[in-house]
Amino acid sequence: MAIKAALGPIFKAIGTAIISKTAQNIFTGVSATASAASGVSAQRAFNQEADLTREQGDLQRAEAEEEAIRLDQESKAKRKKVAMSFVKGGVTLAGTPLLLLETQAEDDEAFSGSVKKRGAAQQRLAFKKGEVLESRGRAALIGGIGQSAGTLATGFA
Fold first, then answer.
1. Which of 22, 63, 132, 93 is nearest to 140 (CA)?
2. Residue 140 · residue 43 · CB < 8 Å
3. Would you tell me the crossing angle of helices 96-155 and 2-88 to the nearest 10 degrees?
4. By CB count within 10 A, which of 30, 71, 87, 117 is most buried?
5. What is the mean pLDDT of residues 94-119?
């Protein structure tokens, strides 16, 4: 009886220590899992934003292409109208009138070309931003996994 009375508190302390260590291990596992999940979630969010950014770049380029086509059509119609005005007024389309129409056509083409270039530049910028966002997502994932590993290493030590 004396031995049982003497060992009772020791067994109780050992049992408490085991339960405490088990709870600590469970908490460590949950914390490590949460860190890894946070990294995965952040990467998904960055990748979604990257996809949307690229999609926006594609739309900007398409809009610029459409605008350039519209400008070319308007320019051509305007030059036809001016040419008809010359002809109706008895002016031949040679010399200065022809030079005027050709110069206007070159200027209009340069302008519509700049609109196309702007659209292409916006698209390239959007794709570069998408790459940066994906890189940030990878960094977040690696950070989450690293934090998870650190938690496991210190928690089970």
1. 132
2. yes
3. 180
4. 71
5. 94
Q: Quick count: other Cβ atoms within 10 Å of Cβ 39?
A: 22
Asked if residues 119 and 60 have their Cβ atoms less than 8 Å apart, the reply is: yes
**All residues at 6 or more sequence positions from 79 whose CB lies less than 8 Å from its CB, including other chains:** 101, 104, 105, 108
Q: How confident is the model at residue 15 (pLDDT cuts 50, 70, 90)?
A: low
Q: For residue 95, what are its two tokens?
A: 């010399």
Task: Indicate whether this model's pTM tops 0.85.
Answer: no
- Nearest CA among 118, 99, 100 for reference residue 110: 118
Number of domains in the chain: 1
> How many of the other CB atoms lie within 10 Å of CB of 92?
9
**HSE toward the beta carbon, residue 3, CA cutoff 13 A:** 0
Segments forming the whole domain that contains residue 34: 2-155
Cα–Cα–Cα angle for 77, 79, 83, rounded to 5 degrees = 115
